[in-house]
Amino acid sequence: MTRNPWPVTRHEAADEPIVCRCEEITLSQVERAIAEGYDTLEELKRHLRAGMGPCQGRTCLPLLARILARKTGRPLEQVFSSVSVRPPLAPAPVTLFLGGEDEG
Ligand code: FES
């Protein structure tokens, strides 16, 4: 694999897999946090700030949950049940909340 001479992020330069692109959280950071005892999705979010970037975890929370499930041996459903998801999950037109018609 040819290495990009102009890496986009500092982690790309180290060829380290990134779990959360918004907050630049790497796989090794996640694994280290789990080894230190942060063994729920909510604890990992708060400790690493994964899932708190502009996409609000749409990209990284499923990855984080799978890593946590694999490392702890817990079922994925149990891992996901510990996280609080805040609405709205997708952009919505303001008119939706005002009771008007969507002109788009
Ligand atoms: S990829 Fe983690 S918050 Fe966006």
3D structure, described in words:
The protein is mainly α and 104 residues long. The protein has a single domain (11-98), classed as BFD-like [2Fe-2S]-binding domain (Arc Repressor Mutant, subunit A, Orthogonal Bundle), CATH 1.10.10. It has six helices and two strands; from the N terminus they run αββααααα. It has helices at residues 10-13, 27-35, 41-48, 60-72, 76-80, 94-98; strands at residues 18-20, 25-26. A two-stranded antiparallel ribbon has the order 1-2. Strand 1 and strand 2 form a beta hairpin. The protein is elongated, with a radius of gyration of 17 Å. The mean pLDDT is 83. FE2/S2 (inorganic) cluster binds at residues 20-23, 50-51, 53, 55, 57, 59-60.
Secondary structure topology:
Blueprint: H1 10-13, E1 18-20, E2 25-26, H2 27-35, H3 41-48, H4 60-72, H5 76-80, H6 94-98
List the domain count as a whole number.
1
Which ions and ligands are bound to the chains? FE2/S2 (inorganic) cluster
CATH superfamily: BFD-like [2Fe-2S]-binding domain
Amino-to-carboxy terminus distance: 45 Å
Q: Count all strands and give the number.
A: 2
Biggest sheet architecture: 2 strands, antiparallel
Please list the strands of the largest sheet in the order they lie side by side: 1-2
Short structural summary:
This protein is mainly α and 104 residues long. The chain has a single domain, classed as Arc Repressor Mutant, subunit A, CATH 1.10.10.1100. It is built from six helices and two strands; from the N terminus they run H-E-E-H-H-H-H-H.
